[in-house]
Specification:
This protein is α+β, with helices and mostly antiparallel strands. The chain has two domains: about 200 residues, no CATH class; about 120 residues, Beta-Lactamase (2-Layer Sandwich). The chain is about 60% helix and about 10% strand. It has ten helices and seven strands. The strands form two sheets. The chain has a five-stranded antiparallel β-sheet. Helix 2 packs antiparallel against helix 3.
């Protein structure tokens, strides 16, 4: 996901630099070159944003929508590199205003921007509805604000065609430049929060977080689903131990079971020297595994002495609620 974020930032930065180069250049060939390349990076900026949002939403590398968008994008890039006709404004400063109005590339660009804009709105809407915790909701709101400022306000460029006053042109250019950079800051800040709270990256449902020792004693549990009650969590500690022991015996393996795939659920198990941490989730992802491991490490650091000298008192582990809140809410 962070690779897509880097590509998004890089594409947007290069687009802005090339746009500035187009304005300050005086040679027509260079102006046209800057315009064509900036159009490519503008397309790549929007494309990388879609990849970023889809990966955030579904944890998938490539989808059917992305396949269609990729085909359209490479067609557009091919047409741009074929040196198409452009409209050159020579009233005052020379600059390229757009591609030739009746060219195929104009229609394909319109199709691309309409599909991309519509799809981004759908992804953001679904993400906002699916967000559960306050932190996740705040992250989605920051992304929505960022996308609005960075990608939708720039459509004000269309107003240039209705203005012949240089002062309005400069004003709109300034507003759009500020808006784009403000949007990038919102998006960057939102996704950088995931480095600290990786669980924010995914929307999969958590059913149960359970810690038990080698004697099958339930040290701590956190129930996230109405499908599981307090009695079940106590039984599950013994059940998980029995199942893993049975698999080890049947396979004559000394390796401990780390994962069991259930119907519409997945059980992930982390075995430590003095305890086992089990997590039942809707589906396992890199984000859920990282959150699971971080919780286990923090739990072990906090209660290392109590785990070594365990005397049967489990109430001392109740403060694990704070660690669970950090990684799973």
């Amino acid at each position: 996901m962070f690779l897509y974020l880097i590509i998004y930032f890089l594409s947007d930065s290069l687009y802005n630099l090339l746009s500035i180069g187009q304005v300050i250049s005086t040679e027509l060939d260079i102006i046209i070159f800057f315009f064509l390349i900036s159009e490519i990076f503008n397309i790549l900026t929007i494309y990388s944003l879609i990849l970023l949002l889809e990966f955030f939403e579904k944890n998938i590398q490539f989808s059917r929508t992305q396949t269609i968008m990729t085909m359209l994008i490479f067609t557009l890039i091919g047409l741009i590199l074929s040196n198409p006709d452009v409209n050159i404004n020579i009233t005052g400063d020379i600059y390229v205003d757009s591609f030739y109005y009746d060219s195929l590339i104009i229609y394909l660009e319109m199709i691309f921007y309409l599909i991309a804009g519509f799809w981004i709105i759908i992804i953001l809407y679904r993400s906002k509805i699916a967000a559960k915790s306050p932190k996740q909701k705040k992250l989605i709101i920051n992304v929505i604000l960022g996308v609005f400022f960075a990608n939708y306000i720039p459509f004000l460029f269309i107003l240039y065609e209705f203005s012949e006053l240089e002062s309005i042109f400069i004003l709109l250019t300034t507003i759009i430049f500020i808006s784009q950079n403000l949007g990038i800051i919102f998006i960057g800040f939102a996704f950088l929060q995931i480095r600290k709270y990786p669980w924010l990256m995914q929307k999969q449902k958590v059913f149960l977080l359970l810690i038990y020792n080698q004697h099958r004693i339930n040290l701590f549990h956190k129930i996230y689903s109405k499908e599981i009650n307090l009695g079940d969590s106590s039984l599950l500690a013994g059940g998980f131990t029995a199942v893993t022991s049975l698999i080890q015996e049947a396979t004559k393996s000394e390796s401990k079971v780390k994962s069991i795939l259930l119907e519409e659920k997945e059980l992930k198990i982390i075995n430590r020297e003095d305890f086992t941490c089990a997590l039942i989730v809707e589906y396992s992802t890199q984000a859920s595994e990282l959150a699971h491991m971080n919780f286990t490490i923090d739990f072990e650091k906090k209660f290392l002495k109590e785990l070594k000298d365990f005397d049967g008192e489990v109430s001392i582990f109740e403060s694990s609620e704070e660690i669970a809140l950090k990684y799973f809410s």
